[in-house]
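Field notebook, page 503. I keep forgetting to write these up properly, so this time I am using the form the group agreed on. The chain and the ligand, KG4, are recorded exactly as supplied. Prediction of the bound pose follows.
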Amino acid sequence: MYSTTRAMLTRCVVHVRRGVSAYGTFGRRRDGSRPLQQHANKSAVGGGTARTRTLSHAHAPKNTADVSSGVFLGSGALNAGARVEVNAQTLVLGIETSCDDTAAAVVRGDGVVLGEAIASQAAIHGPWGGVVPNLARAAHEEAIDAVVAAALAEAGTTAEALSAVAVTCGPGLSMCLRVGVRKAQKMSAQYCLPIVPVHHVEAHALVARLCAGTEAVTFPFLALLVSGGHNMLITARGVGDYTILGSTLDDALGEAYDKTARLLGLPVGGGGGPALEKLALEGDPTKYKFPVPLRQRKNCDFSYAGLKTAARMAIDADIGGGDGDDVEWDGLDKRQTRADIAASFQAKAVKHLEERLKRAIVWAREDTPDLSCIVVAGGVAANATVRSTLVKIAEDADLPLVFPPPKWCTDNGVMVAWSGCERLALGLAESAVDADLERKHETMDPRDIHCNLLPRWPIGEKDSRATRDNIKSAKTARIADPLRGADGDRDISGSSVRAAGIE
Ligand code: KG4
Ligand code: ZN
């Protein structure tokens, strides 16, 4: 499966304007007291050259935040927060269970992907029209051991040979995050592995540095992150250092795709987005005059609830089927009408992305003139219309556009493992979980084990130009500190994190 990766790497940078220096090499340590064993140099089956994806102290991005995430999954800061050398001998296992994919991967410190595995739950949740948390947790629990074992086997390695384990601890569904975090903690204790807490949305953005190379995607860059749960534009100044230029006031685009696909009666077992995209190929995107969202608001926020409602009204009027939730479609009835609605929905959805991205380029350049590129990531970035439309905007702005290959746009273990490499290098890892504590946990009811999760972990602060009337911000009482959060900004003993982040 990796034989094609090199080819994908060359395709994921659409337009490279300039090359910039890479970001260094680093070695590994298992805990604060002794150096890690060096991993035997195995044959690399991942993509790209190590040259473009090494991480060096000498060339570290100027604005890299020297921060601690303040998340405690292990036994406190590894090496007292000192940077760690990460290089081709470093092997990081990444575990992702934040939503409906159980994924794991082993990535080398120089960005070579050695093995990956994923168990998708799309077929489980498809009939329900959305992710059902209890079902998701049960499916993660059933799959996690086999997925991790498959990733290690494909990498031709064992847990003993790992340098660290990285795991998504937020944002996401608490009961799902817990499955991955507990697996990582058990492995950390058993094999004495440093543990790296990973922010899911940051991982979507950082995987672009693995795909296109750290020479192409240097900080600062602009990122458009579009998935089922997130829709935002951010300026990425360094690992852990992000400013939110705009985010969605209601639905994320992936969510709107999923819901509209279901209303159209499409089989959503393989995901609503891909199903709608496929049907839209047969439709006329100008047939339905749906509104482009938020035209009156001259900012970088998004809204997809209105467009979703407009599509629903067209479905009710021209197709019928009540509230549409349980529509069963034989694939033929009013196919052209359905295709026209799908194409018209997609056209306006992508137009909205296009308009917001254009403004975000202007905003970002006002205070960050030296952007290296635009990264578009998250599940919806797998959409061909999104990809082809945004290429033009990047060209007009004379900025390279970087898309990870589709399989690394949707949730995957590689992005978590790579974020683990980046954070490990910067001293943002934690020492191994205490083995005695973990033995105690084995005797406890799993539901009673305390586990620091951050289901609503913001990726950063909002830009001052961004609107402040974000509807979802009503839940701020449960929102954890931003991903950024330098030492001294807050109490990293964990009290604020616990108050905000516990399920
Ligand atoms: O990043 P992701 O796997 O999970 C989240 O973090 O949410 O994104 C999943 C979302 C789903 O809503 C799915 O319908 C959407 O990404 N998606 C697409 C396409 N592939 C996945 N949406 C539109 N077109 C696609 N080709
Ligand atoms: Zn995601």
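OBSERVATIONS:
- Residues 57 and 500 are 34 Å apart (CA to CA).
- The mean pLDDT is 82.
FOLLOW-UP: compare against the apo run.
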